[in-house]
């Protein structure tokens, strides 16, 4: 069934960037025989983040996500073993990450040699998820069960959402304050996460990724709806990503031991943007872009790994 309305945009922008609901999908790659206190041989790469770092949507996340690719690149470069400990969780925003740190989820962090942080997308795009969930709940619909809906139920949901989302002014009045709140949390949470990490690991190199625009080039104002943001959706997204990336940039600048990795620029130099569903896209219209998922595809994950690897080699 095709979704070429704002409901589809919001579902993909929100639900898919968060992994279709919050689940503890973190991957502890330790062998069962190891205790949490055991010191693994080799060097340790610890990754913290959301569904992008987890490898959501990949056929084989354990081998295709950027942390696995990066550890292989590092091993080949310096002939030393690198252990890939990926604690990313689909759906996490900065506050969720901080909670997981406080709950002791990243048990290899104190022994990490390199720590990679990729967080912030859900502080922005997750706003659409909560808005859609609340809008659907008003109609007695739980969107977490969308995979089990019939075509008729999906069509009814689409029609309900499309009708509600015609009132663009009302939408923006609800969404914009939520985006502001998410950005404010990102700023304070990053500082708190840094303090938490450094209290337990004073020597690890820390790399933080900024956020790429998965909707670059989408020219429709809001993907084929009667609603109108007054600008192309790709530009609307970029405007808010600039705020998000500005916070990440200021955070990195405030700490001389942090390395900012410009994933946004790497993705901006690609055509098409290497995200799930992009392989068959030929342009930026609503009809052509309706099946896009904002998560990086295998090529996108490789691009992140290569960009990180270059940053690590330049800083070595």
Summarize the structure.
The chain is an alpha/beta fold.
Kindly state the percentage of residues in helix. 40-55%
CATH class: Alpha Beta
N-to-C terminal Cα separation, in Å? 50 Å
**Spans where pLDDT lies below 50 across 5 or more residues:** 1-37, 222-227, 282-287
Please count the beta strands (DSSP E, at least 2 residues each).
Answer: 5
Q: What is the topology, as strand order, of the major beta sheet?
A: 2-1-3-4-5
Helix tally equals: 12
Number of domains: 1
Arithmetic mean of pLDDT: 81
Biggest β-sheet, characterized?
A: 5 strands, parallel
What is the radius of gyration computed over CA atoms, rounded to a whole number of angstroms? 20 Å
**Assembly classification:** single chain
- The SSE order reads HEHHHEHEHHHEHEHHH
CATH architectural name: 3-Layer(aba) Sandwich
Which fold name fills CATH's third level, the topology? Rossmann fold
Name of the CATH homologous superfamily: SGNH hydrolase
Beta fraction = 5-15%
- What is the approximate shape? globular
